[in-house]
Amino acid sequence: MRKIKLYTIIYVVLFVFATVQVLVEFAGFDYWTGLVAILALSAVKAVLVAGYYQHLVHEPRSLTALMVGSLFVALVLTTAAAFSIM
Amino acid sequence: MTEDAHAENGHDGLPPQTAVKRWLVTTNHKDVGILYIVTSLFFLVFGGVLALLMRVELWTATQTVIAPGAYNETVSAHGLIMIFFFISPFAFGFANYVVPLQIGAEDLSFPRLNALSYWLYLFSGLLFGTSFFLGGTFSGGWTMYAPLNMPAYTPTVGGTTAVLALMLFVASVTVSSVNFLTTMHRQRAEGLTTLKLPLFSWTILLTVWMMLFAFAALLAALLILASDRIVGTVYFQATEGGSLLWAHLFWFFGHPEVYIVFFPALGIMAECFQTFCGRRIVGRKWFIAAMVLVAIQSFFVWMHHMFLTAISLEIKTLFMATTIGISLPFDLMVFALIYTMVKGKIRYTTPFLFSFGALVLFIIGGITGVFLGAVVLDYEFRGTYWVVAHFHYVMVGGATALFGGLYYWYPKITGRMYDEFLGKVHFVLYFVGFNLLYFPMFVAWETPRRVFEYHQSFVAWHQLASIGGFVLAAGFLVMFYNLYKSLFAGEEVDGNPWEYASSAEWSVSSPPPFENFPGLPSYGDGRLRFLTPGRGGEVADGGTATGDDALDAAADPATESDRPQSDGGTVTAEAARPEIARDETADTALPDAEAEEEHPDHASYWPLAIGLSAYVTFLGLSGIRMDTAMYPALTGVGLVMGAFSFVGLGRESFHVPEMAVAERWPFEGVENGKLGMWIFLASDVVLFGSLIGSYVFIRVAYGWTAWHVVPHDPIPGLINTYLLLTSSFTVVLALVAAKRESTRGLVASLGATVAFGVGFLYNKGIEWQELFHEGTTVGSSVEASTFFLTTGLHAAHVIIGLLIALFMIAQALKGAYLGEEGSRKVEYFGLYWHFVDIVWLFLFPLFYIL
Amino acid sequence: MGIDPPFGKGLVNVIVEHALHSGGADDIRTTFDIFREIFLVFLVIGTAVGVVVVAYMTYNAYKYRDGNGTADSGDVSRPELGELPSGSGGGKKLFVSFFFSAIIVVSLIGWTYGVLGYYEEGPTEAETDEALEIEVTGYQFGWQFTYPNGHTNSTLVVPQDRPIRLTVTSDDVFHTFGVPEQRVKTDAIPGQTTKTWFVANETGQFEARCYELCGSGHSYMTADVVVVRQSEFHDWYDNRSAAENETQADDDPDTETGTDTEGRLVGVPSVTTPNHATEPTTIEP
């Protein structure tokens, strides 16, 4: 039961964060500030889902490393490619 | 069936090797290895004949025998076939056969998936072959530069077929990578820590890691390309960086691919130098460290293929530095091999000659590669025969060692020795032919690549090269004759025909017994022994020698902590059943009443069936925009066959025991199925990452803030976010219910997931419908293309997830998936579903808000 | 095409040409000079390293052959079946060799990096005449050259000894523009522009061509490059304008340019003297 409670809390947080993302958009912040805030919220949501719903926190760290590694590969491609034409 | 066949069947559940049926249903790694080797040799001949065609055309400086368009097809197909359908699968034939033997595993972790990899490979190759008959195959070079790869410039159906064939090949590679990684990380004999792996296995381990990530990027590139060609998106024809986007995606895959192709060859060189010099590799740890460095660095050098494009000087400098960085570890490896010969007892057998020759060729390829590392020289060498000669010295130089491997393991695979004299004849023809073929290309380097008209002054050099090509080809005739003849007439060999061979495959008979080992292999006390399963009693001594120089058998600490865990001991059918790829539906996992003492299964028709359905589907897709009913019909038939096959695979009871005791660093405590799922998801991260990266790249090229966000308002996207988050929550509940053995809770939760997922798709459908009505279609702008394709691929993931969920509901109603063991499949499905959720968490802001 | 420029007969040529050219220090460094110098150094060092390494390998393979007696001396431990893999000693020698090879590679590349900046930017205005800026557009299957005054031409006519700056792009697919004799090359990418430059020290007729597979006409995708004396160029250029652009971009070059077995020396802009193969002096005013 404690587990279900935890999962429910996380669900509510995710729900709220998604709403906040859209609110940030309508709040009329500076574009780049809004961009950073919105992406940061997405990142937090992703970490919550991966950490608890996919229970990475309870798995060996090697699995976390695997996922971080693959994310890193994708980010290298994205940033270096974008940087090359800036 | 004969008495003998029955006996065989009784033993391993498979018809004898002389029966055709055996080869259609087998999932045994040694059988699959042989299938890979034979098939890849067929593609060697295919690609080789195309090469000879080119050499005939290049005999004179003007166009003679092949029409211009056909020449481009020949060039392109030669490159694609050799790189994709020959070299890597050839190496993976050996990997399939040898790696489980070297690491002490009975088979790969997921034998059916291994067979599936093979069939996908075979059918992708056949599909590529078919493309020749559909108006001509792809003719834009193996690098497939954009926008020449667009239907506006390469309009044939066959061109699209070739692209889809490559996608199918990538599917095969991905399944294979997941399988090998799980196997090699979790099924090593006790005491065989990662660092102690034989060098061939080491190279394969690094190769599959590179494959996992590199091929995911290629898949992204091919998906976009196929979408541009079939659906009508406009990525690569976009003047806002479309052409450069292809170059980035392709070379991000393409450079690691060079090492993916070369590493297995390096491993074979190391094994052959060690065996035939009778010396352990000098500086083994450094050799391994160098390889690990190269494998990592290979993802940071790709832009050196783009020095002449519009990329900035800063990034060129950065990539020049990383390029020098990656060349240095190879120096160390080369010297390590050379010094291994010192104080050796070298026997000039055919495998050694090929390995030695490969090293010489690689040195030449490496030195000429340093030329290309100097940006100023690279500017001039770009697009010339210098590049052609260089990469043939490296890649075909690598293949040289693979042929050495073929001779090295031939007696192990067939139980008979090849003809040594003919082997040496082959080597001489090969080495002379090779250098005669490729060295003149350095001299005539100013010839542009991929032309049939070149400057008169180079004619003599090209004629020399053509002669060399035919000498090289003649060598292969000798090889094929030798291999065929020796199959019947070769001298029979015992387990180990090579003095000083040390790895485990030589400690069993030739060919090895079906289960590979007479007992559970273990290096627990520093050298190979075979233990009686479950007892720990000693059965046989794997080595021939007596007490040796104290090898540090210090098992890695992980072993100790791992042993008591539930992974070990008796393993039920459930636990070990392969189930990972998103397209593989869940297993029935119903307890089989008649199974007394469960034997491992080794036969399944479903991998073949899935491969065939994929062939039919993709063949249909490639021409679906044509005005005939045939192609859509083929697509439909293929999809139905595929659905039937996947359900068949899912319902089949297929038992694979997990190793009782094994080295499992660094994935102790993550059972095979779960690890496989995670590794697959890692490749999916790179797939989606590359697609999102493509979006970012195009948007940067377009002007980030000048970009138009396609959906008018973010509310439908927000609603979909709510729906998907909720469906993730219900999957969590499903797992809890399954663990509590509540069929009702499980079915209800999964049902809710399906409902929310359908809601998601419905909402998306409405949104798309509205956009289409307004005239915003997939091809109306590059903004629209990125929106529809990226969210569309995500929707496809949702659909696949829903199909799996429906299958699982059907099984759950029959009482499946309950308890700690049974719920694992629900857990694996959850991992996939949450991943799809996470992807949406990023797609939503990127495509709806920002 | 009938052109037979005395360029690029391969490696030997480079060395010979280097010997012939090494005297002239009067001019600005051209891409041709830079390439030749670096290529030569790489070739010499590369060949030397290759020969030494392969010779040493072969020597070892011969010396330590089975039955030579060298093997059975001493206390070398041999690999045994079933052992846990391990390595032999000899790490020190390994690192010394590695160290030297690393020094060679890093210093070679580092040295070339020193000239990369110059190679990218070209000579400054102070060092030389004002550069001539020409836009190059690739298309299936030919090249179009646009001059500052708006004139477009299918032949690249340029003055001798003056930096030519090219801005290159493509109208359709990915091409690569290159003039091998001038050692100039850059990608022609639709939607992107790349820049490069060259200085032609000698008059004559050369060939520009495509270096990236671009379709069935790739092999034929060439254009003539004609280098003339500066005065001659001015005569030609002053009589051109955007108005009289060629309508047909891919005229047969032979009808408009003089060709000769010594094309490099006698090339002239065909537009002034069609089918005429004489000394450049003859058409000077």
In short:
The complex is a heterotrimer of chains A (86), B (850) and C (285). Chain B is mainly alpha-helical and 850 residues long.
Provide structural commentary.
The complex is a heterotrimer of chains A (86), B (850) and C (285). With 86 residues, chain A is mostly helical. Chain A has three helices and no strands. Chain A starts with a helix and ends with a helix. The N and C termini of chain B lie far apart (67 Å). Chain B is globular and about 70 Å long. With 850 residues, chain B is mainly alpha-helical. Chain B is 66% helix and 1% strand. Chain C contains six helices and ten strands; from the N terminus they run αααββββββββββααα. Chain C has helices at 11-21, 31-63, 91-121, 230-238, 253-256, 263-266; strands at residues 132-139, 142-146, 152-153, 156-159, 164-170, 175-179, 184-188, 194-198, 204-210, 222-228. Chain C is of the alpha+beta class and 285 residues long. Chain C is elongated, with a radius of gyration of 26 Å. Classes of the chains: A mainly alpha (86), B mainly alpha (850), C alpha+beta (285).
Low-confidence stretches of chain C: 1-10, 22-26, 247-285
State the fourth-level CATH superfamily of the largest domain in chain C: Cupredoxins -  blue copper proteins
- Which residue ranges of chain A are poorly predicted, with pLDDT under 50 across at least 5 consecutive positions? none
Number of domains of chain C: 2
Query: In whole angstroms, how far apart are the ends of chain C?
Result: 30 Å
Main pleated-sheet profile of chain A: none
What's the arrangement of strands in the largest beta sheet of chain C? 3-2-1-5-8
Name the shape of chain C in a single word. Answer: elongated
- Work out the strand percent of chain A: under 5%
The whole-number mean of residue pLDDT values of chain C reads 79
Rg of chain A, Å, rounded: 16 Å
CATH topology grouping of the largest domain in chain C: Immunoglobulin-like
